[in-house]
Amino acid sequence: MKLKSVITSASVVAISAMAFSGIGGSFTSLNASAKTAKLTAGKKMKAGTYKLEEKNYSHGYKTKFSITVNKKGKITKSNYDQVNKKGKSKVDDASYNKQMKKVSKTNPKTYEPKLNKALEGAAATGNVGTIDVVSGATESSKTFQNYAQQLVQAAQAGKKSTIKINNGAKMKDGTYTLKEKNYSHGYKVTFSMTVKDNKITKSNYDQVNKNGKSKTEDASYNKQMKKVAKTDPKTYTPALNKSLVKNSDPTKVDVVTGATESSNTFVLYAEQLQNAAQNGNTKTITVNNMVFSD
């Protein structure tokens, strides 16, 4: 899956930016312009160092991740790494790197610096959606983006306590909720999922306006998007929700053709809700999503 939002059709470009932007999170539909676009909603990140750490080892390694933000609210240093019990980085595991390189054409020694560089570059303002999945390292790339988004949220709030991810743990029963704070082109994301016996039994991802009306009910928007993208919120929203319930795993949710950005946002937020469920934390997650001018 490619997590970066890309507009490939000339006909899509011809439509106003309003038609397909403002999907959610720190994403914008025109990511190339987000580098210079003005931030119109969502807090800038506060200066400091923010940390995230997995609790559990998987195949001998766990993730440790930190970002440093300067006074201008930009990420100047990204340090994503996977370390073993001795604190040795996976990039230094010659045997693992050699084996993975043969199979995947990449390895930690290659993809880890690439992901860190991406966060220090185009995504330095917190626009995590500009980060590409590294071919051959899809799972690690998805994990990177999920954790980067959580660190950005911490930096916006100035929360410097280390984020603890109970990776690999079973999800605890309950309903877990995430909401965006800011509207982009009239809509913001609301998302809840219900867990029972370590399975996701209900998923309710939606984009709503200030009146609480779903984008799936916006006939004009749906008609316009359908003509260009061959899909619309009325189609892809239930498809994404159904896929998450079927798989009980955000990483197994497929991107809906024509709705790449919404699919990516869905997966990103679903992963964050999964992390909350692993900790049994039912407190609503409020995402102070960044909105940029077109």
UniProtKB/TrEMBL annotation:
Signal peptide: 1-19
Record-given protein name: Extracellular electron transfer flavoprotein PplA
Keywords, ordered alphabetically: Signal
Higher taxonomy: Bacteria, Bacillati, Bacillota, Bacilli, Lactobacillales
Family annotation (InterPro entries): FMN-bd, PplA-like
Superkingdom of source: Bacteria
Gene name of the encoded protein: pplA
Organism: Lactiplantibacillus daoliensis
FMN-binding domain sequence ranges: 60-155, 186-277
